[in-house]
Design brief:
With 402 residues, this protein is of the alpha/beta class. It folds into three domains: 143 residues, Rossmann fold; 178 residues, Argininosuccinate synthetase, chain A, domain 2 (Alpha-Beta Complex); 32 residues, no CATH class. It contains twelve helices and 14 strands. The radius of gyration is 25 Å and the shape is elongated.
Amino acid sequence: MNSHIKKIVLAYSGGLDTSVILRWLQDTYGCEIVTFTADLGQGEEVEPARAKAEMMGIKEVYVEDLREEFVRDYVFPMFRGNALYEGTYLLGTAIARPLIAKRQIEIANEVGADAVSHGATGKGNDQVRFELGYYALNPDIKIIAPWREWDLNSRTKLIEYAGKHQIPVPKDKQGEPPYSADANLLHISCEGKALEDPWVEAPEDIYTRSVSPEDAPEKATYIEIEFAKGDPIAINSEKLSPAELLTKLNKLGGDNGIGRKDIVENRFVGMKSRGVYETPGGTILLEARRGLESITLDRNASHMKDEIMPRYAECIYNGFWFAPERLMMQAAIDKAAEVVNGIVRIKLYKGNVSIVGRKSDMSLYDEAIVTFEEDDVYDQRDAEGFIKLNALRLRLGKRLKG
């Protein structure tokens, strides 16, 4: 019944889940499988995935370093919008999925595959994000989601299947893991098991990218970030590529206990989920851009940007990166970013990010106008008419009410 599938491109990490999926696809569909492993800065070697795929008989293996593209074309555009899902989540997992989906579809076109597959479960957001991306880029692609098809519905069954088929299982996966993790250059997230009770504090050993704020240095770290058209281009006058810059911010933030979040969020599929996130560089970047926007963006433009942000963030969270509404919002965001040029001075101290200086050739801040000293550019008597005009509807309303 599966003979209609001729060739499948699998998003493959080399871990337990996707290794089991790889063998299951071979057994179930009996067709050629192509594996695709993306290095998005997850912090672990991706080349072993190549050897593992080849060991399992795969002839076409793609292992690609996409860190620069990830930060330049996905993270930075998203950050221009100051995107926060439900006011707190910096969307580290969500923003990685469209790039993986795009490259999978490109590979499918290159190798003549008629199907793609992923390892996302049927309970989470990622299945939606991957598949919306696939369909947006190839409306006719066939999608295979093993977690929605097979009966291997527990970690124990996966390990048993792996043992039966001589699939190597990492030692830390031999027992039930305390939580599941997702990582890339922007963040690392942990969910499940030890975190499923939202009342219980996350153990300290869950954190891998940051020291505890209590253990951070007693002396503050000061840095300067330069922006051009809304994107960071240098730290302390050192020009860096997008991936290099985010890597450096991660180190600076992690060393100072910055970027930890313990969140209960609303998944797109309808349930609530508790997760612990570390986003050191992204946390600094968000504060820094807002600091520079405060002097370069027009008031109403800034307020409008804040109004569309929740919709924009929800769009990305739900997997609609390639949707027309996201592209429309992005065009407005990028237009606003044209004036976000300058330098921000930041103080990092024990988990806190404080803006302590900002300057720009495009600054709308005018000391001659805001000074409390005597000036000849602002006639304070003009405020009386301004106030009366704005009070007119309030006065009329009060008179009618008596």
